[in-house]
Amino acid sequence: MTDHIPGGDPSVVQNALHQLAADREDVVALGTLAASDVLLPVPDNVPSPNGSEPQEITLPVFEQSDGVRLVPVFTSEERMALALPQVHSYRTVPLAVLGRGWPADDLALSIDAGSPDTLTVQGQGVRALATLTEGG
Hints:
Elements: H1 10-22, H2 27-34, E1 37-42, E2 62-63, E3 69-73, H3 77-83, E4 89-94, H4 95-100, E5 107-111, E6 119-121, H5 123-131
């Protein structure tokens, strides 16, 4: 696996995550993150749609020992492989698309889990990120 994401430069998104680790209110970094594509892991037990793009996105929900439920997404194949070596498939999804359809406030989004710049965003925050990409 390479440190590459189709349709985007992972280093730009990773830099935005690094900026947000220092200042969660950094509007430029939030905008960069909101406009980025992320890798959404597809568990091996999810059937393939026979080469066509599925109409619905199935979110891989993980529950932590403290009961927190989260969906992991990644900025590169390399970071995904480090955190989830058992996952071999993913979909590239615009983060704003995930945000517009985020299902619940009690479901968190974890970006680059396991990396020094991991960012976890609660449900309302995920939907708020999506609004940053809407024209205005």
